[in-house]
Amino acid sequence: MARPSIRENLVQAGLHMLWQHGYAGAPVRDITDLAGARPGSFTNHFPSKEQFAEEVLDRYFAYVGTLVAAALADDGPSPAGRLRRYFDLITDKLAAESWARGCMIGNFSLEVSPHSEALRRRLSQIFEEWRRPFAACIAEGQAAGEITDACSADDLADFLLSSWQGAMLRMKVDRDPAPLDRFKKIIGATLFAKASP
Questions:
Q1: Which pTM was predicted?
Q2: CA gap 16, 8 in Å, rounded
Q3: Are residues 115 and 34 in the same domain?
Q4: Digits of tens for pLDDT over the chain (197 positions)?
């Protein structure tokens, strides 16, 4: 069995460090130490910490994509039920981290977008890609009359993702799931209300 490459070890260490400590709180030396690599090996694989962070973000988003695909899969529940399943799945993962970790994409959006144009652009692309499966599920629910049609599916998907990120931010500040519960309660009473006549 082949041993993981130094590059892969660095990316895995970066996933841990950047998610746990943020961009500024994860020095390259700490990442190389965690990866079991020599400090100089970092620049053999990544021209800059910024490009490294972009690869780590892409790896994290691929992981998020598997969660989205599993939760929104058309395997029985209604579209609204599948959306609820996604938020419940993420809530369980946040609980496992004692409400302290949040989402790396949201964390980076706050921390690095004012300072790195390259990372800001990549984060913007990620949100655009992330919205699509939610918009498709919402459109299906609108067609079935179980999700409000007061706004477009794209707008509702953007609203859901933005509001969920805000709820996770407040959850981290308070170390409490109440903002997530409030989000789900309000979404259930508004978005998942029957479509207008």
A1: 0.91
A2: 13
A3: no
A4: 445 689 999 999 999 999 999 999 999 999 999 999 998 899 999 999 999 999 999 999 999 999 999 999 999 999 999 999 999 999 999 999 999 989 999 999 999 999 999 999 999 999 999 999 999 999 999 999 999 999 999 999 999 999 999 999 999 999 999 999 999 999 999 998 664 44
The amino acid present at 106, given as its one-letter code, is G
The reply to whether 152 falls in a domain is yes
Domain co-membership, 114 together with 140: yes
Q: At 157, is the secondary structure helix, strand, or coil?
A: helix
- C-alpha 137/C-alpha 195 separation (Å) is 15
In a domain, 197, yes or no: no
What's the token pair of residue 63?
């992981």
